[in-house]
Amino acid sequence: xxxxxxxxxxxxxxxxxxxxxxxxxxxxxxxxxxxxxxxxxxxxxxxxxxxxxxxxxxxxxxxxxxxxxxxxxxxxxxxxxxxxxxxxxxxxxxxxxxxxxxxxxxxxxxxxxxxxxxxxxxxxxxxxxxxxxxxxxxxxxxxxxxxxxxxxxxxxxxxxxxxxxxxxxxxxxxxxxxxxxxxxxxxxxxxxxxxxxxxxxxxxxxxxxxxxxxxxxxxxxxxxxxxxxxxxxxxxxxxxxxxxxxxxxxxxxxxxxxxxxxxxxxxxxxxxxxxxxxxxxxxxxxxxxxxxxxxxxxxxxxxxxxxxxxxxxxxxxxxxxxxxxxxxxxxxxxxxxxxxxxxxxxxxxxxxxxxxxxxxxxxxxxxxxxxxxxxxxxxxxxxxxxxxxxxxxxxxxxxxxxxxxxxxxxxxxxxxxxxxxxxxxxxxxxxxxxxxxxxxxxxxxxxxxxxxxxxxxxxxxxxxxxxxxxxxxxxxxxxxxxxxxxxxxxxxxxxxxxxxxxxxxxxxxxxxxxxxxxxxxxxxxxxxxxxxxxxxxxxxxxxxxxxxxxxxxxxxxxxxxxxxxxxxxxxxxxxxxxxxxxxxxxxxxxxxxxxxxxxxxxxxxxx
Length: 607
Fold this sequence. Notes:
The chain is of the alpha+beta class. Helices cover 37% and strands 23% of the residues. α14 packs antiparallel against α20 (503-519).
């Protein structure tokens, strides 16, 4: 039985070598565990910020543009000519709105209650754009239209309202619509000035958009930061809104009664180059500059209907430009005082000269007629201006010679741009005769304002120096820049460019031109309370054979100390004689009277 018992295997004991290996293995494991704990502590404490930033850097940031406000344009008295109104776009997020019945109902109820939006239309819109996170529902909303809903959303009661966003933008507004349209200009695409001050001062009126950023902060919570927009500067103009309205009303009345190819009025301060008004018969609505109705100021409805899009674009550009600055024409007899000024300044004329006008002058092979075909007879130097005698002016110019005549033309800045702060100024230097190229006939016809061109702003600026003592000022339509909060950034001071003639010569010319109003071709400019002076103009257009004319009058008051200059130009009168300068004189008188009263100019003490 004992032999049948199984033998037990002897138990193997750990020898010293095995014990050492076991202890080493355990030690290594313990060491690795300690190292692991250390690394965890290291990353959680010392490297925590780095890895948080790495996590944040992988998140989706969102940003929203905060539009700047374009600067206002004001008249000289602070009245608004152009401003920017904040408008809102209602954007819906259908995907978020439809995430639950409760959110859907609460959101649609809120839109209906606070914005009076149709519930059925809202629901159809949301379902039609069910996969969208951005769907524009309504544009150009005023603050008053959204204020109640914005307040509600910001309250605790709007817990279940979701998916409503209001994007902001500014829309350019022109409170007076067409007033001074070619001076102001308008804005295209929200930021691009087109024509007038909007274009010339575009960088000044423009600002810089701001930005609102949404992101996860270090606590992994949604946060936001805002870079505020920088608004554009406010431009204060030299324009007087009341004088501008007066000038435009006079043109409107004239066009209704007589009609013309185009008529314009320039009103200036002769003592510093400031522009009080620029009125044109082709004004347009600044609120809707591309509306076909604007074209009816220049074209008939049938003409507009036949225009292609390319032709319409060209026609709009003609309407938008400022003819006072951009159009050049032969000035006619309004230039005569400049011819006389050159002779007086050079000592060629003394003031006591007389001339015999027989109705024409023979200049080489040419016979050049006076405006008074039968002749004026024997007249004085002052009468050469007041009666507008071409014959006498040709005799004066011949005595001066082409070198003196051409030098004074350039001295009065004819042929050069004035540098007015408006776009599109006409360059007429190529149309002015140099002395070396001037023929005897050129000299004769140039003496009374034919055979060369100028713009209204060139004539107006030069004429101011004739009557203000000889000071030629750079014309300008802006007098001050302000920050968006109303602080003055800079004042634009008058720029004296040159001395054209002496005060003595200027004083004589004012007396001669007062005679024009007292007893000459401009008697319709006589006023009850103010002395006035001026010069009429009649220019036959090219081709001469067409028998078409531009008439004009450049007038000023008071004679003893001129405060206002008014220049009226009418191109091809339609329902009266095209040579009837009296119509231009009548308009100028009314604008002069109204402007003097508007500016509170003291009445003349003597006639």
